[in-house]
Amino acid sequence: MKRIITTQDAPAPIGPYNQATLVNNILYTSGQIAINPKNGELITEDIEAETHQVMQNLKAVLAAADMTFEDVFKATIFVSDMHNFSKINAVYGRYFNESTAPARETVEVANLPKFVNVEISVMATKG
After folding, report:
1. Which domain holds residue 72?
2. What are 36-51's pLDDT values in tens digits?
3. Starting from the edge strand earliest in sequence, which strands make up the sheet with 72-79, in order?
4. Among 56, 84, 85, 110, which is least packed, fewest CB within 10 Å?
5. What CATH number has the domain bearing residue 30?
């Protein structure tokens, strides 16, 4: 059975999708960008702050499903410029224990929603 996961602590969807769905104890999050959920503003002053906001948004969605970054088993990172990878990776890495970090791919794309620099989605499960 599919359960829709929503929280006011992460940005509302900007299209016909939900923040996450829980199916058979697996959480699939939609890609998060650096929208501050409190005021709707984009955080793009630097790539580190932008990535941090993305991770905070993911943290809120995970929490709404009673999960944490420790429950994440797969992550996908989309970047508009691979030259930002090391800075994105440094911020991303602060949210995971290196020995239990999830599988991941990072893909450079031509554009992202609202022309942001980074978008991240994750899959997670309890137990």
Report:
1. 2-125
2. 999 999 999 999 999 9
3. 2-5, 20-23, 26-29, 118-125, 72-79, 103-108
4. 110
5. 3.30.1330.40
